[in-house]
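This protein record is not my work; I was only asked to verify it. Would you go through it and say whether the fold makes sense for this chain? Here is the record exactly as it was handed to me.
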Amino acid sequence: MEQRVLSEFDKYAVSIIDALTERFSSKLSDEDMNFIVSHLESSVQDLIQLMREGKSAHEKFFSDIILNSIDAIIGVDNEYKIFLWNKGAENMYGYTKEEAMGKDFSLVIPEHKIRDGEREFLINVVKEKGFLANYETERYTKEGEPIIVSISRFPIFNEQKEMIGSVGIVRDVTRVKALEKELRERENLALIGEVVSSIAHSLSNPLNIISGNADYLLLDKKEDDKEYEELKTILDETTRITKSIRHLLNFSRPLKIHKENKNINDVIEEIIKNSRYITGDKKITFKKSLDTLEVFKFDVAQIQEVISNIVTNAIQAIPSAGEIKIKSFKENNSAVVEISDNGPGISKENQEKIFQPFFSSKEYGKGTGLGLSIARRIVKEHQGEITVRSTPGKGAIFTLSLPLT
């Protein structure tokens, strides 16, 4: 375009000289007129340069927006090879520009998503509809970390209106989804709290009367009496129901943390001492390895509940004989408690669900599925972390980490 303007100016220069000659021939020499035309040509070139610089600044402005965007902006050609990979894409996925350029865009699509046909879906929906808006899906970073993303894609065309590829704008919505899930859980907890409080109020008095009478009648019975087992069953079952209701109430109510200075090893010692009385006929050995830990602030009763719950689950998981190890040590300015057993272990599928409310792998009537969910809430309120790892057939290891400051 710029060369065309300059070449066209040569034609206009002749017309300018003719006009100047007609009007000022007696006043202007040929040298004067050539000077005027030359100056005009120089001015036109200056204007073209200004236009060129303005266009360059305009392009650079938008180029900087694209390249430095927080969102990932990924361009692919008609062969679906990556030709644009901005800093947002580098930060989100962990692949450098050099690692991504020229690769098929399936580089960022998980294998199971490719098998499910997501690559073809992303291609076809843009072809058929002309765009893709806010499509949410799963992705993995280069390091294998899962993220939830929202994808919008649209085609790009050349001056002849031929499609030369497409551009995807990808936003990491992992945190947003986590907050939405947490909000739903809080809403559910509020509803559960109302229902459970009503049920607990209705059942507490009848249960107290039943258990109290059964306990009173047992005072006059011996173990070999005919009614002893029936009364014992009534007492055990009412106790179980009461405990389940208490779990539901604890789960539905907001947690209140009352921290005090304590050595967590003292809590572990007390739990081991008391756990020996709930093993029943099982031959379970307790082993401990407690490092010297400093005193720090935590809610003693609640952390005791967390560790006791894990130890009780380990006792219940071991069939007839086994071993439970409890270790404590300091790591990254945190007190770490590790509880392991050599029971049957936890399947990979259940490991992903084990901290979810109301999930239980125990048989019906053996648990509410709230113990570990409550444990996670307690630990999170302490700004700590609780994790599990297990190999089926080789036991499970629960790790509890609490900040020392």
Summary: The CA atoms of residues 270 and 304 lie 9 Å apart. The chain has a mean pLDDT of 82.
